[in-house]
Structure prediction request, 465 residues.
Amino acid sequence: MLFSKETYITRRATLRQKVGSGLIVIMGNNEAPCNYPANAYGPHRQDSSFLYFFAQHREGLAGVIDADTGEEWLIGDDQDIEDIIWTGFVPSVHDLALEAGISQSAPMSTLKSLIDGARAKGQTVHYLPPYRHDTMIQLADLLGIHPLETRAKASVALIKAVVDMRAVKTAEEIAEIERAMAIGYAMHTAAMRAVRPGNTEKAIAGLMEGIAVGRGAKVSFSSIVSQHGEIFHGSPSLRPLEEGRLLLVDAGAETVNHYCSDNTRVTPVSGKFTARQRDIYDIVVACHDLVIAKARPGVKWLDMHLDVCRLMAERLKDLGLMKGNVEDAVTAGAHAMFLQHGLGHMMGMDVHDMEGLGQVYVGFDDEVRPSTQFGTNCLRCGRRIQPGWVLTDEPGIYFIPALIDQWRGEGLYKEFINYDLLDTYRDFGGIRLEDDLLITLDGCRVLGEQIIPYHADDVEAFIAS
Prediction:
């Protein structure tokens, strides 16, 4: 276990109090077969909410809390001799339960009896929305519903309680995120050193993954390594790096205890930015640094996002790419020609923390609802930020030829966008800069003892050194 037994006892007690009544069921993950049962995607990744409340990494477990009586169970089947032969010994479910401060354990077949008993007494059965199809089927069997109904019928009360708790990181959680940041620093600086003509995107992605694995971690998501930074989730290819282009690297580490980092950097393949590249790059730096200067408790993240959009539009207007009234342009959504995603997302045990619980519960509330406007509709968090939250700060500017052609063909935002000049940027690519912020009592701080170079002069000096 990562933290003390008392940490998990307290978390479960708090969850029980927040939910109030009913039977709380939190499913752990099973092994996920890649192409046949014995060849699983690995290593096994436990469900984050199960880890948060029940501590154990083993596959095939479920946790149950009776919010009315306070009884708790760890549910799962013990290993048999074949399991031990192939994968080694792990403690019994009973011993795992005691380790997490739970007095009762039972085989997986008991879960059906617990749920049926709760329903017979008129208790609500609370569960979180499943994201793996085997869990959907398992819950469907337990509850007597169609597997496709399982997400829609998940407990909103449980979702909101879990979000409230997991969003605010404790000091011990921050320390674990800082360990992920240190690995991420090593990954990104090694990647920057490897950027040179002729090397490949795949080689750089492999280099970073090797660093993570060698430090007992793994990548927190599939690394984005691409000379086409305008493609948000551009997978690395065998394409050689080309003189004059920019390489965007969006990557992070996940520690052995499943806390994450997430950073993005852009490196000129030739070692120096061209004048045009630096003009755009410096705008993104200014937007990134604006967030660090202004983020503090009580600020609506939607307002922070729109402040970034206004600064970006103003600076793009200085370059001649935008025109007209900046406030009107942002209100209309014309800035989304250049920034099509939101400013950032929560981060913790999941790199997009708790996104599987439903973004409308994680990032929004009754005061701030999701936008339907193109670009802003991709904002993953809009509500007022709180001390203890960890958020990514990741503005970007992208030149997407298909979007340029579509908007120009439809005559959109002609009063705000200089399409003739924009056409000359069609092969530019994209720039994104990303760091991870801890919201403090009076502001924020960038996580990581060492900050990956990102100001243009520092990037060029780092490469030259």
Remarks:
- Residues 171-194 form the longest helix (24 residues).
- The radius of gyration is 24 Å.
